[in-house]
Amino acid sequence: MKIKVLCAASAVVLGATVAAALPAAGASAASSAHLEKSAVAAAAKAPAPPPVGQSDGNLSSNALQTWQTDNTVWALAYGNGVVYVGGQFLNARPPGAANGSTTGEVSRTYLAAFNSTTGALITSFDPVIAETGSQSSPGVYALAVSPDGSTLYVGGLFNKVNGSYRDNLAAFSTSTGALTSWQPSAYGKVNAIAPSPNGQEIYIGGGFNELGTSGSTAGIQTRNYAGAVDASGNLLPWAPVLDNALTTIAVDPDDSQVLVGGYFGNINGVFQPGAGAVDPVNGTTNISWGANIVPDDSSCSPPAVKTITISNGVAYLGSEGTGGGCFDGDFAVSLSASGDSLVWQNACLGATQSLVVINGYLFKGSHAHDCAYAPGGFPQVNNNSGGWVTHHLLDQSLTDGSLGHWTPNDDDTLLGPRAMATDGKQLFLGGDFENVNGKPQQGFAIFPAKPDSVYPSNPTTAPTVSSTSSGTDTVQFPAVSSADVGTLNYNIYRDGGKTPIATLTATSWPWALPVLTYQDKGLTSGSTHTYTYAATDGTHLSGQSPASASVTVASSSPALSYNQTVLSGNPSFFWQLNDTGSTANDTSSNNFDGTYTGGTTQGAAGPLTGSTATSFDGQSGNVYAQTAVNGPQAFSVEGWFKTTTNTGGKIVGFGNSQTGLSGNYDRHVYMMNDGQLVFGIWNNATETIETQNAYNDGQWHYFVATYDGTNMAFYVDGQLIGTTTSSSAQSYTGYWRVGGDNLNGWNLDPWGSNSQGTTEPISYYFNGTIADVAVYPNALTAAQVKTHFAAALFQGG
């Protein structure tokens, strides 16, 4: 069985900035689906973090206290300082009112308007929308404001507006709030409305089978799920042939194509499940979509793309994932007259419902619970109620879809926030939630441009302090996170002082907390000290952490250099990876050399003063042993790495192939997409120890993985991460490899398996720098590990 050890780890950042689907035994190479997604999921390195104190998109995670609704909001549209809100509500509720309270409620049937800055109810806009027939779930499901801002288009399930007949479509003057004469009829539910850039064509989608205007020249005609009318309400020839309902429409701002999404499997007879693009005139010519754009295949019935938004020539699409194993993340498509092409896919599990772009970031509404196969994403975590921890609100990089730092939350009871809109600075949110960030705010919320409002989390972990060199204390502690700021400063305090002795900088996520270190030098040998730390975004300062245990400053330093210390442990081989040729020379006396492949670059700065290392490209670069050996039943693997990758990769391991992907592979240390490390061996199952914290912070880290034939132990930066037991390791002849090899089937999260992969990293090859890899024929003791790390700290000083 799988053994997963999670321990609160206190590890080190050297040089911190100062202010089983398939088992290893007989496993095949990675599937083509994995390799395809690896190629498009993300660049190997994460986008550069924003400066200290800056939030993604300059957006606050604190929602304004605004007017609310008493039921689900399905549609939003912004125009002229007003947010129009449509859904299944019957009343608007005052700010701060408790859920279910009727005090101060004002009747609003399915449609309301709010001031976009304050969230105040606009009392002059009070249309009465009704369904007097037999339709179930009446309400407003689609809203759009005309490009000139003069008209609000409304769609849904209704047949009366202000007492006048309107068949699921209506329009209002935004200046007067009056119902206009525009009255095309849709014979079925309307889910989406999208005007063309000049406002002359109004594209409409939903569950209807006929569309038009009674008494007009064109009249009512067959339009299955999609059609268009003009600004006067007359039917237009645009009529793509779909085989199921449409849920979302977006028009390219250059008016060259119309993107459609929904539950269909075919567009104009072409298999293109869930989404595609057609011409804007007749809708019967498909715009060419490159290979791999549509994540779903024929096994998903029906597919479900629920939202499309376009920004700067790129369309961002979100999938609901209806059906087991169906894609429910989001993806980006570059739009071009010569054909559209995939930019990236983000495979978070959690039914994406809404997307919007604000100030260079993509904001997302879903119930994301397993983003382990997304760049920089988080693994699934069980909650205390038999379910999973979910994130209803996230943001992503436009470049590669990797997860950002904006992480407020709401309590949507179904799939997630249903609608998003923006005025270019603020985020307007709609859904079936009743609370936002734990405060009453039902149906509708506004997240403003970031004010000085959010404090970093208070540290709850005391620093770990050691003194292994004369006059020096080494202070180690994990970072904290903020709900909207990714990069924070950390003030370090000595002996209860109020003035920091140093300030470090680190970037974090709630699910990926790096670990920092500071060497406090020039202290008096024999003196004793304690330390605390606090986080700041440059404006707000968190509370201080608990104080460390008291430490006595050492009076002597390590006598041997790091290299001498390693060699004194009699390693089987020691590849310093500081070579200039194709051979990775063994510094030990065993002549167990390795070979550099393409995708490696020598001469990078190393972890120790004056040392050099080798960089790996995250695609194919690795170093392999020139000689095969029997897989050891007792061993230690030691080394150093530095990376900012958000797609994981194997740092070092043992496999039965010198090149390519091994069929048998274990005894490895690898990184998951979020920066967590895993030490694993194969014993008819994955036997693993996993770090709780993340180590893809661009700093050097030291690791040691040991196995004595029964006991496994994993250390990072001199600190014990965890231990577990295994009766044996897999028996086969193979080669030690650094920088990459197969990881297919190394799935560690509770979900177990899904169509997008799980905690095995997107890339099996490591993008970063590696140095000083040593393998020993025995398990190093904790004391030896501390001695090695102490020598490195002293030499690196």
The main β sheet shows up as: 10 strands, mixed
Instruction: Write down the overall mean pLDDT.
Output: 90
First and last CA, distance: 43 Å
- What is the strand content? 35-45%
Q: How many individual β-strands?
A: 61
CATH topology of the domain at 563-796: Jelly Rolls
CATH class group of the domain at 563-796:
Mainly Beta
Which segments are poorly predicted (pLDDT under 50) over 5 or more consecutive residues?
Answer: 1-43
Radius of gyration, in Å, reads 29 Å
CATH architecture of the domain at 563-796: Sandwich
The DSSP helix count reads 3
What is the SS-derived class?
mainly beta
Helix content: under 10%
Shape: elongated
Q: Could you walk me through the main structural features you see in this protein, from its secondary elements to its overall organization?
A:
This protein is mostly beta strands. Among the domains are: 240-407, Thrombin, subunit H (Beta Barrel), CATH 2.40.10; 464-552, Sandwich (Immunoglobulin-like); 563-796, Sandwich (Jelly Rolls). Helix content is 4%, strand content 37%. The chain is built from three helices and 61 strands. The strands form 17 sheets. Strands 1, 46, 47, 50, 51, 53, 54, 55, 56 and 60 form a ten-stranded mixed β-sheet that branches. Strand 27 (330-334) and strand 28 form a beta hairpin. The longest helix has 15 residues, at 782-796. The chain is elongated and about 95 Å long.
